[in-house]
Each structure stands twice: as structure tokens, then as C-alpha cells.
Amino acid sequence: MEVWDIHNHILFGVDDGAHSLNQALRMLDIAYEEGIRNIILTPHSHPRFKKANVARFREAYRELEAEVKKRYEGLRLYLGCEVYYGDRTLEKLKEGSAIPMADSRYVLLEFDTYDPIEKLKKAVTEMLSNKYKPILAHIERYDCLLDDPNEVDSLIDMGAYIQINAGSVMGNSGLGIKRYTRKLLKEQKVHFIGTDAHKDDRRTPHISKCVRYVGKKYGADYADRIFMKNPQAIINNQEIEETL
Known about the structure:
The protein is built from ten helices and nine strands. By secondary structure, the chain is of the alpha/beta class. The chain has one domain (3-235): Metal-dependent hydrolases (TIM Barrel, Alpha-Beta Barrel), CATH 3.20.20.
């Protein structure tokens, strides 16, 4: 299986992720060792990050990609961003100041932990009505979904895709979050698992244990969909064939 990471902050010098090219390369060393061969870079598109603009993203991407071609056989990079949802999100996507995932119609959306479910549903409706495919980032962080897990079903029924973090599955965010994410996996309500890596010494791009766990516990076919087939659908700008 060619493992994909669709959510991370490896792109350097643009947000709270890698602060330099060297740190980004150290993160890629870890990712490569973990078996990751395809990475959609997703820097924050968020008002609090003043350097978070598309021109900077593309410049850093070109520099990082040039180094990757020299150092890592078979490692492919794509560019996207983690878009903080607000009143101007749709406008930003249309004008190009926020970018979808790998030039597709898929958009990785982030919310505040305390945002009400109504805001998440509004975002999904707005994206879908404008022919974007919303992926909701690290849903295990949102109080409204922790308080009422049935709302995850509502979002999926609306047309949203669900992403959780590998570290959450493996217990890095506490026992409660581990149980929550594993219940979602058991019920096959997860479309993507990402590392959400930020550094090379903490919040690192480790994923191999999670890949093995999902395959052993929930089946090789499901692991294949989460870690390879569904991410490939993003790159190909295709519908995810197997609905959960």
C-alpha cells in the first residue's frame, strides 16, 4: 500500500508547522521512514497566520519539491491548504486566495473547537452548493461532535467527508478521544486519516502504527480505502466510489 498523508504542516515558513526547509526535510525523513509516499501539503489558510498566503505557499512548495526530487525516491508532493471556515471562505476559494486540495474540488475545512454544529452544516451546504467537496479536518476536536456523535452521521449524509488524526487513534490526545475515533472507525464513518504533523520533535508525521492497527482491527480493505484509495480520488478529482 502506498500510504498517503492528506493533512500536515510540513510546508515551511508559512504557519505553525515547519519553520525552515531543514526542519521540513527532517519531517519528510520521518514520513518516508513511516512508509508515506504521497503527501498533500496543507498549510493553514487562517487570518492569524500573516504569512499564510498562496504566493508564499507556492514558493515554499517549489523549493521543497526540488529538494524532494534529489533526496527521496518515489515521494510525491501536492499542494493544498487547511482552510479555516469563515464568512469569506467561499470568496477566497473562488478568487484563489485559498486553495483546494491538489487542484481538485476537495477542500479541507477547519473550525474552532467550540463552533456550533450549525456552523459546520452551513459550511458543508455552502461548499456543496458551489461544487466543492468538503473534508472536515480532525473532527475529534469539535465539541459539538464530541457531545453528540450522531451529528457525524448528519454531516456524512449531507455530503461531507470525515478526517481524523492518526495520533488521536493511537491515544496521543487522551483515552476519551482514542475511544471516540476508534468508534468512528468501527462504524466506518472515517474517510481519511492524516498525521496533522507540525514538527520533527513533537506532533511528528508518524502513521505506520495507525495503518497497521486499522488494517488488523477493521480490515485490510477499509485501511486501503482510508490510506490510499480515497486520497487518490482527491488527486484524480473523482468521487469517492465506496461510500461509508
